[in-house]
Design goal:
The protein is mostly beta strands and 144 residues long. The chain contains 2 helices and 10 strands. A hairpin with a 3-residue loop joins strand 6 and strand 7.
């Protein structure tokens, strides 16, 4: 059995907010008495912030440029990250089709519906709206 004085567990929800629980030595003793040693260790390890695999979805995806040579040779820049024909996806999205004028991308955590975006356009995730320009930049307020 583990001889832990305290157990600190962190639970994160999809919004990225975390809550913690601190247990007294007596509460740890109760858990140790009913949970096998490996199970308690797995619970503590599973809730370790370093082991959490959370992908934060940005509010806006901005396609800054398309460098297109042919269907199997291209590079695109989305939110300052490069995607190529040989490396067309990550934890967040997949570039499913590229032409000289536009790309189609799929968000992995959402419906498998692809969205067409042109260079210098932004995809606003909520509502799946495509707008011209870099929507990540907030306009400066006009000063009189």
């Amino acid at each position: 059995m583990h001889n832990l004085n305290r157990v600190f567990a962190i639970f994160c929800v999809t919004s990225g907010l975390c809550a913690s629980i601190m247990m007294t030595p007596e509460e740890v003793g109760v858990i140790n008495s009913i949970a096998p040693e490996e199970t308690l260790a797995e619970i503590v390890e599973m809730n370790d912030p370093d082991n959490l695999n959370i992908t934060l979805v940005p509010d806006i995806l901005f396609l800054s440029a398309i460098l297109y040579f042919e269907p199997s040779q291209w590079t695109v820049w989305i939110n300052d990250k490069t995607y190529t024909a040989s490396d067309a996806d990550d934890d967040l999205l997949k570039v499913s089709n590229v032409t000289k004028d536009s790309i189609e991308l799929e968000l992995k955590d959402y419906l498998k519906k692809s969205t067409k975006v042109r260079a210098n356009q932004s995809l606003v995730i909520s509502g799946r709206r495509v707008i011209d320009g870099d929507a990540r930049i907030k306009p400066k307020s006009a000063q009189l």
